[in-house]
Specification:
The complex is a heterodimer of chains A (90) and B (377). Chain A is of the alpha+beta class and 90 residues long. Chain A has two helices and five strands; from the N terminus they run βββββαα. Chain A has helices at 60-73, 75-86, and strands spanning 5-13, 16-24, 27-32, 46-50, 53-58. The longest helix of chain A is centred in the C-terminal third of the chain and has 14 residues, at 60-73. In chain B, strand 5 (134-141), helix 7 (146-159) and strand 6 form a beta-alpha-beta unit. Classes of the chains: A alpha+beta (90), B alpha/beta (377). At the A-B interface, strand 5, helix 1 and helix 2 of A face helix 1, helix 3, helix 6, helix 7 and helix 9 of B.
Chain lengths: 90, 377
């Protein structure tokens, strides 16, 4: 739950300004980007996601480092990713 | 992936450790607290204590949101979940936390409708799909998750959802740090500040620690070298007689935090007069509740909440572990009666809990430390 997981913004949802589809380790889900309204991420940019909300923008190399780190910590990340895969934010 | 390796390299770690050792004053012992459970996890996963000179002890702090929830709140939540036509939603981390009559998992096995969600926004969807049921979201977490709950409540209000509410257990990190600073049990020399909480609150809220208590704070990232670099920055401050707030994790944490997140929290929530923390007792102004304008979404306003205070099991020493007074393996039941599969205390439940981190990685390290000590001339 406290793990921040990096995701790449894929696209915005057409009729919902604060929702975006992201790719996290191959899992594509919708998250809320309303907390970055002041510095809105563009498709192709990376964000750090906590419980379905993008909390900060990060650069791609930081994202790669964080992802590899998370994959290394094992079960906690696997659980977080499984939870994300179950998520259906709309 | 060269960039990644830069955060991992054992060579770099040893170089940093050597510089840290140079900064140690002969004969002086240093106690540095890592506030955040995510840092505890990294420290044990990578055996960082093995790199550090003996003069430096890392003390684990209270920054594990699941760990600090008192048993009575778990009982209250299960009571809410057991009401007719009610669905409770919760993060997975919370499911195994023991209350006095079992955990959410136990309640679920007995037929109570408790569902795991990834995001509070998933609870909204469950509420929309179940108009005949009352959906209560078990909200926990420090400032990292608080804005998500606030945004979800704002969304529910905007949609006019009438069957969604929040059982708010959000806590704030600063009063917990202050309680530890004021505690006579422990003398700390500095703090490794939490990374992701600081994404929201920024670095300024820690200034009282540096200015008022004369202790340095370095906000740190989660990679092994981030933590070693933060320890180096703390030691440099101590050796130069400085106490300041520094940000090692600048690539993620803005000095002023996330203003939109702080605004959302402030719009929806206010500080409670006091809140009970597991192991730390009642701390004033240390947790959030929903403002009066959001009573329609506040489970504590909509339901009767028993609010019975439950003492921790006698054998459990999570309190001492959360304050950093005891190392996890010094607890009487660690690894015997209390394991991640059958936790007695909260610190063994969450992957961020100090006991779970030790259990999963640390016991081996302890042997290693003992061996190293034995083999020293």
């Amino acid at each position: 739950m406290c793990l921040g997981i990096p995701g790449e913004v894929v696209e915005f949802l057409p009729d919902q300004a604060d929702l975006a589809r992201v790719d996290v380790s191959g899992v594509r889900r919708v998250i809320n980007i309303g907390l970055l309204a002041d510095d809105r991420p563009e498709p192709g940019e990376w964000v750090l996601i906590h419980v379905g909300f993008a909390l900060s923008k990060i650069d791609e190399s930081e994202a790669a480092a964080a992802l590899q780190f998370l994959e290394g910590i094992g079960q906690a990340y696997a659980d977080e990713l499984a939870a994300l895969a179950e998520s259906r934010i709309e | 992936m060269r960039f990644v390796d830069e955060f991992r390299s054992a060579e770099k770690a040893r170089a940093l450790a050597a510089r840290i050792t140079e900064l140690c004053e002969p004969g002086r012992q240093y106690k540095l607290m890592e506030v955040c459970g995510g840092h505890t996890h990294t420290i044990y996963k990578h055996g960082l204590e093995d790199y550090l000179p003996e003069a430096i002890t890392l003390v684990h702090g209270p920054g594990c949101p699941v760990c600090v929830i008192p048993m009575g709140r778990v009982d209250d939540a299960i009571h809410l979940a057991s009401q007719p036509d009610t669905i409770m939603t919760s993060f997975g981390d919370m499911m195994r936390v023991p209350g006095s009559h079992g955990s959410f998992f136990d309640a679920k096995a007995n037929g109570t409708d408790i569902r795991m969600v990834y995001s509070p926004l998933d609870s909204l969807k469950i509420a929309r799909q179940n108009p005949g049921k009352r959906v209560v979201f078990m909200a926990i977490g420090f400032e990292t998750t608080t804005p998500s709950t606030a945004m979800t409540v704002l969304r529910a209000k905007a949609e006019g959802l009438e069957n969604f509410s929040v059982f708010c257990n959000h806590v704030t990190i600063i009063p917990a740090i202050k309680a530890i600073l004021d505690s006579p049990d422990l003398r700390l020399d500095g703090f490794i500040g939490p990374g992701h909480v600081s994404t929201v609150i920024g670095c300024r809220p820690y200034e009282f620690i540096a200015a008022g208590y004369g202790k340095p704070v370095v906000v740190a990232g989660f990679e092994p070298l981030d933590i070693l670099q933060s320890i180096y920055m703390l030691m440099r401050q101590l050796s130069e007689g400085r106490s300041e707030v520094e940000n090692q994790y600048t690539r993620v944490v803005p000095w002023d935090g996330n203003l939109a997140a702080l605004t959302a929290i402030n719009q929806v929530m206010e500080l409670r007069p006091y809140f009970e923390w597991r192991g730390l007792g009642f701390i004033t102004h240390s947790a959030m509740r929903l403002r009066d304008g959001f009573r329609a979404f506040d489970a504590e306003a909509l339901f009767e909440v028993p609010g019975v205070r439950v003492a921790d099991p006698k054998a459990c020493q999570c309190g001492e572990v959360l304050k950093g007074v005891l190392k996890p393996w010094e607890c009487k039941v660690f690894g015997t009666a209390c394991t991640p599969e059958t936790p007695i205390g909260t610190c063994m439940v969450s992957p961020e809990g100090a006991c779970a981190a030790y259990y999963n990685y640390g016991r081996m390290n302890r042997h290693r430390v003992v061996e190293v000590e034995v083999s020293r001339p």
